Known about the structure:
This protein is α+β, with helices and mostly antiparallel strands. The chain has 11 helices and 10 strands.
Amino acid sequence: MDERYRELSFEDYRRAVREFTNEVLIPSEREVDRAGRIPDEISRAMRRVGLFGVSIPRRFGGLGWTLEQQVLLVLEYTRTLAAYRSHMSTSTGLMAQMLLERGSSGMKERILPDLAAGRITGAAAITESEAGSDAGAARTRADVCDEHYVVNGSKRFSTNASIADVIAVLVRTDPGSTDHSGTSMLLIPRETAGLSVRESPVEDMLSWRGSPTCEIDLNDVRVPRSARIGEEGDGLRVAFKGFSHARVTIAATAVGLASRMLQEAVTHARSRHQFGQPIGHFQLVQGLLADMYADVVAGRSMVLDVARAFDAAGRPPVTDIAATKLFCAGMVQRVGSKALQVLGGDGIVDRHIVSILYRDARVISVGEGPSQVLQAKVGADLVRSPELLAV
């Protein structure tokens, strides 16, 4: 990280991130989407600006911004491809949060400064073919052998695993268990013998191109028992706060994408002429823009509200976070659909940025908790705890 960014006030840093987004990220977005890879020079630039350290405390070399401040930054740098956020989110999100919450002092001192500087990249391997939203059903086993675990199994949909230096892997350490109580979280270097990673081909990706989505095989991978994060049997509890953090930031990503698509629609409505006047003068087009604006404002208010509550309590308001992510996942798709309607044919041909961002938006209702899972959670929470309705 360039040390000058460490000296800035938050508002000055936010301004710097806005300029970086406008001058570096947005001009590269089409090429990144086409190539399916974030160029090394952009990755280095993101490190210089300090984006890999926004969630990590200053004592470990990060910037130590609150979650509310992190959300405000996400709203700046997600006015473009979601892949940019994904490029660093596995380091600043689940990996950093797990270490801060449950990591040993040695782990924190050894890993967090390198994560904050972007010298290393972290990833998490949670999902399996039969364990997605039900992560507690994980079958990847870690059997004890002297002072080591021997890990065997496979993982799917692991973001950034192919470029990661270290991967947090959810494993089953109690072979007799069938739920989350028998799981543990192990920190495994990617180059460990027996661990192999395969990327999904770019052409197979609907969107978030530039964000590697990987499958992992683990065959007799030997890991020292000291590599466990937290206690044995606490695997999902270790990840809990990180999951909530990720849901807040992916909801903010939806707001960032939606705000850019709204901006593009307004620009087009002002410049595109039909029947002798800009199409923005027609009330039906104005109605589309008004609905989009209301959705963006509502989403922005929700993510900032849950982030403030997270900061104030020191623990995630899980029901409100689930509701926020549920709303924003639908909101960004509504905004994208209306933006394409305003753009007409211009939004469909020639890879218009709105069509690219609309593809990115679709993933948000699947990742970090599918919308139907979140619906079920929020509904069940309300039935169980009606006091949540108090305002």
